[in-house]
Here is the input.
Amino acid sequence: MLTKNSKKIVIKLGSSTVIDKKGKFKTNWVNSLIKDIKKFKQNRDIVIVSSGAIALGQNYLKIKQKKIQLEMSQAIAAIGQIRLTEHFQKVFTKNKFKIGQILISPDDTEQRRRALNVRRTFENLFKLKAIPIVNENDTTATTEIKYGDNDRLAARVAQIIGADTLIILSDVDGLYDKKSKKKIIKEVTEINKDIYKLADTKINNYGSGGMITKLDAAKICMNAGCNMFIGNGSKNNPIKNMIQNKKYTKFIPKISTLDARKKWIVSSLSYSGKIFIDYGAARALENGKSLLAAGIIKIKGEFSKGENILIVDEREKSIARGLSSFSSSEIDKIKGKQSDNIIEILGYPSKSEVVHKDDMVKL
Ligand code: GLU
Here is the structure.
Protein backbone atom coordinates (compact mmCIF):
# COMPACT_ATOMS: atom_id res chain seq x y z
CA MET A 1 0.00 0.00 0.00
CA LEU A 2 2.72 2.46 0.96
CA THR A 3 5.65 2.35 -1.41
CA LYS A 4 9.09 3.90 -1.32
CA ASN A 5 7.61 6.71 -3.37
CA SER A 6 4.98 7.62 -0.78
CA LYS A 7 6.44 10.70 0.82
CA LYS A 8 3.45 12.81 1.75
CA ILE A 9 0.56 10.96 3.31
CA VAL A 10 -2.78 12.38 4.39
CA ILE A 11 -4.83 10.23 6.78
CA LYS A 12 -8.49 11.09 7.18
CA LEU A 13 -10.28 9.95 10.30
CA GLY A 14 -14.07 9.89 10.26
CA SER A 15 -16.01 10.90 13.37
CA SER A 16 -16.96 7.32 14.15
CA THR A 17 -13.33 6.20 14.06
CA VAL A 18 -12.17 8.74 16.65
CA ILE A 19 -15.32 9.06 18.76
CA ASP A 20 -17.03 6.02 20.30
CA LYS A 21 -20.76 5.40 20.49
CA LYS A 22 -20.95 7.09 23.88
CA GLY A 23 -19.37 10.22 22.43
CA LYS A 24 -15.95 9.71 24.01
CA PHE A 25 -12.59 10.23 22.27
CA LYS A 26 -11.03 6.85 21.43
CA THR A 27 -7.63 7.41 23.05
CA ASN A 28 -6.51 3.79 22.71
CA TRP A 29 -7.43 3.63 19.09
CA VAL A 30 -5.63 6.90 18.28
CA ASN A 31 -2.65 5.61 20.23
CA SER A 32 -2.62 2.48 18.06
CA LEU A 33 -2.83 4.62 14.92
CA ILE A 34 0.17 6.64 16.09
CA LYS A 35 2.07 3.39 16.64
CA ASP A 36 1.29 2.50 13.00
CA ILE A 37 2.43 5.94 11.87
CA LYS A 38 5.67 5.59 13.85
CA LYS A 39 6.55 2.54 11.79
CA PHE A 40 6.47 4.35 8.48
CA LYS A 41 6.96 7.98 9.51
CA GLN A 42 10.68 8.25 8.80
CA ASN A 43 11.35 10.77 6.02
CA ARG A 44 7.68 11.08 5.30
CA ASP A 45 5.35 13.99 5.90
CA ILE A 46 2.10 13.06 7.58
CA VAL A 47 -1.14 15.03 7.81
CA ILE A 48 -4.16 13.99 9.86
CA VAL A 49 -7.59 15.27 8.86
CA SER A 50 -9.91 14.48 11.72
CA SER A 51 -13.62 14.94 12.18
CA GLY A 52 -15.22 14.64 15.57
CA ALA A 53 -15.55 18.21 16.85
CA ILE A 54 -19.33 18.23 16.73
CA ALA A 55 -19.67 14.69 18.14
CA LEU A 56 -17.32 15.51 21.01
CA GLY A 57 -19.02 18.84 21.68
CA GLN A 58 -22.42 17.16 21.75
CA ASN A 59 -21.22 14.60 24.25
CA TYR A 60 -19.71 17.27 26.49
CA LEU A 61 -22.88 19.35 26.36
CA LYS A 62 -25.07 16.24 26.71
CA ILE A 63 -26.98 17.10 23.53
CA LYS A 64 -28.45 13.90 22.17
CA GLN A 65 -30.51 14.82 19.12
CA LYS A 66 -29.12 14.04 15.68
CA LYS A 67 -30.42 16.95 13.63
CA ILE A 68 -29.01 20.19 14.96
CA GLN A 69 -29.49 23.62 13.44
CA LEU A 70 -26.41 24.98 11.71
CA GLU A 71 -26.01 28.00 14.04
CA MET A 72 -26.09 25.69 17.01
CA SER A 73 -23.71 23.16 15.47
CA GLN A 74 -21.23 26.01 14.89
CA ALA A 75 -21.25 26.76 18.60
CA ILE A 76 -21.07 23.07 19.49
CA ALA A 77 -18.09 22.66 17.13
CA ALA A 78 -16.34 25.58 18.85
CA ILE A 79 -16.61 23.73 22.14
CA GLY A 80 -15.85 20.32 20.64
CA GLN A 81 -12.86 21.34 18.52
CA ILE A 82 -10.86 22.60 21.47
CA ARG A 83 -11.47 19.32 23.26
CA LEU A 84 -10.64 17.27 20.17
CA THR A 85 -7.30 19.07 19.87
CA GLU A 86 -6.63 18.61 23.56
CA HIS A 87 -7.08 14.84 23.19
CA PHE A 88 -4.85 14.68 20.12
CA GLN A 89 -2.26 16.86 21.84
CA LYS A 90 -2.10 14.49 24.82
CA VAL A 91 -1.78 11.28 22.89
CA PHE A 92 0.63 12.60 20.25
CA THR A 93 2.84 14.23 22.88
CA LYS A 94 2.95 10.96 24.81
CA ASN A 95 4.32 9.42 21.61
CA LYS A 96 6.84 12.25 21.22
CA PHE A 97 5.22 13.83 18.18
CA LYS A 98 4.66 17.55 17.72
CA ILE A 99 1.32 18.58 16.27
CA GLY A 100 -0.13 21.80 14.88
CA GLN A 101 -3.78 22.62 14.27
CA ILE A 102 -5.12 23.93 10.95
CA LEU A 103 -8.80 24.79 10.61
CA ILE A 104 -9.82 25.30 7.01
CA SER A 105 -12.75 27.04 5.31
CA PRO A 106 -13.59 26.52 1.63
CA ASP A 107 -12.20 29.97 0.78
CA ASP A 108 -8.79 28.81 2.02
CA THR A 109 -8.67 26.14 -0.64
CA GLU A 110 -10.83 27.63 -3.39
CA GLN A 111 -9.08 30.97 -3.73
CA ARG A 112 -5.73 30.47 -5.40
CA ARG A 113 -3.74 32.92 -3.29
CA ARG A 114 -5.12 31.53 -0.06
CA ALA A 115 -4.52 27.96 -1.24
CA LEU A 116 -0.87 28.85 -1.79
CA ASN A 117 -0.71 30.28 1.73
CA VAL A 118 -2.25 27.11 3.09
CA ARG A 119 0.38 25.08 1.26
CA ARG A 120 3.17 27.21 2.73
CA THR A 121 1.86 26.69 6.26
CA PHE A 122 1.83 22.92 5.75
CA GLU A 123 5.34 23.01 4.34
CA ASN A 124 6.62 25.00 7.29
CA LEU A 125 4.97 22.62 9.74
CA PHE A 126 6.75 19.76 7.98
CA LYS A 127 10.03 21.67 8.33
CA LEU A 128 9.30 21.98 12.04
CA LYS A 129 8.75 18.21 12.11
CA ALA A 130 5.17 18.65 13.25
CA ILE A 131 2.11 16.73 12.15
CA PRO A 132 -0.70 19.05 11.04
CA ILE A 133 -4.10 18.08 12.43
CA VAL A 134 -6.79 19.48 10.16
CA ASN A 135 -10.53 19.98 10.40
CA GLU A 136 -13.03 22.23 8.71
CA ASN A 137 -13.48 25.54 10.45
CA ASP A 138 -17.01 24.56 11.43
CA THR A 139 -17.50 27.56 13.68
CA THR A 140 -17.73 30.06 10.83
CA ALA A 141 -18.75 27.91 7.87
CA THR A 142 -22.30 28.48 6.72
CA THR A 143 -24.32 26.15 4.50
CA GLU A 144 -23.41 27.81 1.21
CA ILE A 145 -19.74 27.93 2.03
CA LYS A 146 -19.11 24.68 3.76
CA TYR A 147 -17.35 21.49 2.87
CA GLY A 148 -19.67 19.69 5.26
CA ASP A 149 -17.69 16.49 4.93
CA ASN A 150 -14.03 15.97 5.59
CA ASP A 151 -13.58 13.51 2.70
CA ARG A 152 -13.47 16.21 0.03
CA LEU A 153 -11.61 18.54 2.38
CA ALA A 154 -8.92 15.88 2.90
CA ALA A 155 -8.67 15.31 -0.87
CA ARG A 156 -8.37 19.03 -1.58
CA VAL A 157 -5.68 19.35 1.09
CA ALA A 158 -3.87 16.35 -0.43
CA GLN A 159 -4.01 17.98 -3.85
CA ILE A 160 -2.88 21.41 -2.61
CA ILE A 161 0.14 20.09 -0.69
CA GLY A 162 1.02 17.64 -3.48
CA ALA A 163 0.48 14.49 -1.36
CA ASP A 164 0.92 11.14 -3.08
CA THR A 165 -1.37 9.17 -0.75
CA LEU A 166 -4.68 9.76 0.98
CA ILE A 167 -5.94 7.07 3.35
CA ILE A 168 -9.57 7.42 4.36
CA LEU A 169 -10.36 5.44 7.50
CA SER A 170 -14.04 4.84 8.04
CA ASP A 171 -16.36 2.09 9.26
CA VAL A 172 -16.43 0.11 5.98
CA ASP A 173 -13.77 -2.08 4.40
CA GLY A 174 -13.89 -0.21 1.13
CA LEU A 175 -16.23 0.26 -1.81
CA TYR A 176 -18.53 -2.76 -1.96
CA ASP A 177 -19.40 -4.49 -5.15
CA LYS A 178 -23.17 -4.16 -4.93
CA LYS A 179 -23.98 -7.63 -6.21
CA SER A 180 -22.58 -9.55 -3.31
CA LYS A 181 -22.28 -6.69 -0.81
CA LYS A 182 -19.53 -8.72 0.77
CA LYS A 183 -16.79 -8.30 -1.75
CA ILE A 184 -14.96 -5.04 -1.94
CA ILE A 185 -13.63 -3.69 -5.17
CA LYS A 186 -9.84 -3.83 -5.02
CA GLU A 187 -9.00 -1.15 -7.54
CA VAL A 188 -10.82 1.68 -9.25
CA THR A 189 -9.25 3.47 -12.19
CA GLU A 190 -12.16 5.68 -13.23
CA ILE A 191 -15.00 7.31 -11.34
CA ASN A 192 -18.04 7.03 -13.56
CA LYS A 193 -21.79 6.63 -13.16
CA ASP A 194 -21.48 2.88 -12.58
CA ILE A 195 -19.10 3.46 -9.70
CA TYR A 196 -21.43 6.05 -8.17
CA LYS A 197 -24.24 3.49 -8.39
CA LEU A 198 -22.29 1.25 -6.01
CA ALA A 199 -22.22 3.92 -3.33
CA ASP A 200 -24.38 3.18 -0.36
CA THR A 201 -26.23 6.32 0.57
CA LYS A 202 -26.46 5.26 4.20
CA ILE A 203 -24.54 7.57 6.49
CA ASN A 204 -23.05 6.38 9.76
CA ASN A 205 -23.82 7.63 13.25
CA TYR A 206 -21.96 10.91 13.22
CA GLY A 207 -20.31 11.55 9.89
CA SER A 208 -21.82 13.81 7.30
CA GLY A 209 -20.01 11.99 4.52
CA GLY A 210 -20.82 8.49 3.33
CA MET A 211 -19.58 6.76 0.20
CA ILE A 212 -20.66 9.50 -2.24
CA THR A 213 -18.36 12.12 -0.73
CA LYS A 214 -15.57 9.53 -0.68
CA LEU A 215 -16.00 9.02 -4.41
CA ASP A 216 -15.99 12.80 -4.89
CA ALA A 217 -12.75 12.83 -2.92
CA ALA A 218 -11.36 10.04 -5.11
CA LYS A 219 -12.09 12.13 -8.20
CA ILE A 220 -10.07 15.03 -6.79
CA CYS A 221 -7.20 12.70 -5.87
CA MET A 222 -7.19 10.91 -9.20
CA ASN A 223 -6.98 14.21 -11.10
CA ALA A 224 -4.19 15.32 -8.79
CA GLY A 225 -2.05 12.20 -9.23
CA CYS A 226 -2.64 11.10 -5.62
CA ASN A 227 -3.39 7.48 -4.65
CA MET A 228 -6.44 7.14 -2.47
CA PHE A 229 -7.38 4.23 -0.21
CA ILE A 230 -10.59 3.54 1.69
CA GLY A 231 -10.14 1.13 4.56
CA ASN A 232 -11.75 0.08 7.81
CA GLY A 233 -10.68 2.03 10.85
CA SER A 234 -12.88 0.26 13.38
CA LYS A 235 -10.16 -1.85 14.98
CA ASN A 236 -6.89 -0.84 16.59
CA ASN A 237 -3.81 -0.48 14.37
CA PRO A 238 -5.95 0.38 11.34
CA ILE A 239 -3.13 1.02 8.88
CA LYS A 240 -1.14 -2.03 9.92
CA ASN A 241 -4.34 -4.08 9.39
CA MET A 242 -4.92 -2.58 5.96
CA ILE A 243 -1.38 -3.39 4.90
CA GLN A 244 -1.41 -6.91 6.36
CA ASN A 245 -4.88 -7.98 5.25
CA LYS A 246 -4.73 -6.11 1.95
CA LYS A 247 -8.36 -5.21 2.54
CA TYR A 248 -9.11 -1.82 1.03
CA THR A 249 -10.21 -0.13 -2.16
CA LYS A 250 -7.45 1.63 -4.00
CA PHE A 251 -8.24 4.48 -6.36
CA ILE A 252 -5.49 4.70 -8.91
CA PRO A 253 -4.75 8.20 -10.21
CA LYS A 254 -4.49 9.14 -13.83
CA ILE A 255 -1.02 9.81 -15.11
CA SER A 256 -1.24 13.54 -15.08
CA THR A 257 0.73 16.00 -17.10
CA LEU A 258 -1.06 18.92 -15.48
CA ASP A 259 0.99 21.36 -13.43
CA ALA A 260 0.02 22.13 -9.82
CA ARG A 261 -2.07 25.15 -10.80
CA LYS A 262 -4.09 23.23 -13.38
CA LYS A 263 -4.62 20.38 -10.91
CA TRP A 264 -6.00 22.97 -8.54
CA ILE A 265 -8.30 24.39 -11.25
CA VAL A 266 -9.76 21.05 -12.30
CA SER A 267 -10.36 19.95 -8.70
CA SER A 268 -12.21 23.07 -7.60
CA LEU A 269 -15.12 22.12 -5.40
CA SER A 270 -17.65 23.97 -7.50
CA TYR A 271 -17.92 26.57 -10.20
CA SER A 272 -19.56 29.98 -10.01
CA GLY A 273 -21.05 30.04 -13.49
CA LYS A 274 -21.37 28.35 -16.85
CA ILE A 275 -20.22 29.71 -20.18
CA PHE A 276 -22.05 28.26 -23.21
CA ILE A 277 -19.97 28.20 -26.37
CA ASP A 278 -20.69 27.34 -30.00
CA TYR A 279 -19.30 24.31 -31.84
CA GLY A 280 -16.59 26.33 -33.55
CA ALA A 281 -15.25 27.52 -30.20
CA ALA A 282 -15.57 24.00 -28.76
CA ARG A 283 -13.40 22.72 -31.59
CA ALA A 284 -10.85 25.49 -31.00
CA LEU A 285 -10.67 24.54 -27.31
CA GLU A 286 -10.16 20.89 -28.25
CA ASN A 287 -7.17 22.05 -30.26
CA GLY A 288 -5.69 23.78 -27.25
CA LYS A 289 -6.80 27.35 -28.01
CA SER A 290 -8.03 29.96 -25.53
CA LEU A 291 -11.70 30.90 -25.31
CA LEU A 292 -12.55 34.13 -27.14
CA ALA A 293 -15.68 36.25 -26.75
CA ALA A 294 -16.78 35.52 -30.34
CA GLY A 295 -17.57 31.88 -29.53
CA ILE A 296 -19.68 32.60 -26.45
CA ILE A 297 -23.44 32.18 -26.80
CA LYS A 298 -24.64 32.87 -23.27
CA ILE A 299 -23.72 32.58 -19.62
CA LYS A 300 -25.46 31.30 -16.51
CA GLY A 301 -24.67 32.50 -13.01
CA GLU A 302 -22.95 35.54 -11.61
CA PHE A 303 -19.22 35.61 -11.07
CA SER A 304 -16.32 37.99 -10.75
CA LYS A 305 -13.11 38.09 -12.70
CA GLY A 306 -10.79 35.24 -11.70
CA GLU A 307 -13.52 32.89 -10.53
CA ASN A 308 -13.80 29.25 -11.47
CA ILE A 309 -16.25 28.56 -14.30
CA LEU A 310 -17.44 25.59 -16.33
CA ILE A 311 -17.38 25.83 -20.12
CA VAL A 312 -20.12 23.85 -21.88
CA ASP A 313 -21.18 23.44 -25.49
CA GLU A 314 -24.58 24.28 -26.98
CA ARG A 315 -26.01 21.02 -25.62
CA GLU A 316 -24.56 21.73 -22.18
CA LYS A 317 -21.93 19.03 -22.47
CA SER A 318 -18.97 19.88 -20.21
CA ILE A 319 -15.94 20.95 -22.21
CA ALA A 320 -13.51 22.56 -19.78
CA ARG A 321 -13.00 24.12 -16.36
CA GLY A 322 -11.19 27.41 -16.13
CA LEU A 323 -10.69 30.78 -14.53
CA SER A 324 -12.53 33.61 -16.20
CA SER A 325 -10.62 36.76 -17.10
CA PHE A 326 -13.88 38.71 -17.12
CA SER A 327 -16.84 39.06 -14.78
CA SER A 328 -20.21 37.62 -15.81
CA SER A 329 -21.63 41.08 -16.50
CA GLU A 330 -18.68 41.94 -18.75
CA ILE A 331 -19.08 38.66 -20.66
CA ASP A 332 -22.75 39.44 -21.13
CA LYS A 333 -21.74 42.61 -22.97
CA ILE A 334 -18.95 41.12 -25.11
CA LYS A 335 -20.36 37.68 -25.95
CA GLY A 336 -20.43 36.94 -29.66
CA LYS A 337 -18.21 39.97 -30.38
CA GLN A 338 -14.78 40.11 -31.99
CA SER A 339 -11.87 40.59 -29.55
CA ASP A 340 -10.88 43.87 -31.25
CA ASN A 341 -14.19 45.43 -30.27
CA ILE A 342 -13.96 44.62 -26.54
CA ILE A 343 -12.19 47.84 -25.57
CA GLU A 344 -14.85 49.91 -27.29
CA ILE A 345 -17.74 47.97 -25.73
CA LEU A 346 -16.36 47.97 -22.18
CA GLY A 347 -14.67 51.37 -22.38
CA TYR A 348 -11.41 50.16 -20.86
CA PRO A 349 -8.54 47.92 -21.94
CA SER A 350 -8.66 44.26 -20.94
CA LYS A 351 -7.36 40.86 -21.93
CA SER A 352 -8.47 39.54 -25.28
CA GLU A 353 -9.13 35.95 -24.14
CA VAL A 354 -12.14 35.32 -21.91
CA VAL A 355 -10.50 32.17 -20.55
CA HIS A 356 -6.83 31.86 -21.37
CA LYS A 357 -5.57 28.38 -22.26
CA ASP A 358 -3.15 28.54 -19.31
CA ASP A 359 -6.14 28.98 -17.01
CA MET A 360 -8.12 26.15 -18.55
CA VAL A 361 -8.29 22.38 -18.17
CA LYS A 362 -10.17 20.34 -20.75
CA LEU A 363 -12.49 17.71 -19.35
N1 GLU B 1 -16.11 18.80 10.65
C1 GLU B 1 -17.07 17.97 11.29
C2 GLU B 1 -16.69 17.70 12.75
O1 GLU B 1 -15.54 17.82 13.11
C3 GLU B 1 -17.26 16.63 10.63
C4 GLU B 1 -17.45 16.59 9.16
C5 GLU B 1 -17.57 15.14 8.66
O2 GLU B 1 -18.38 14.41 9.20
O3 GLU B 1 -16.82 14.74 7.80
O4 GLU B 1 -17.51 17.32 13.52
The CA atoms of residues 57 and 79 lie 5 Å apart. Residues 15, 51-55, 135-136, 138, 149-150, 207-209 surround glutamic acid (CB under 6 Å).
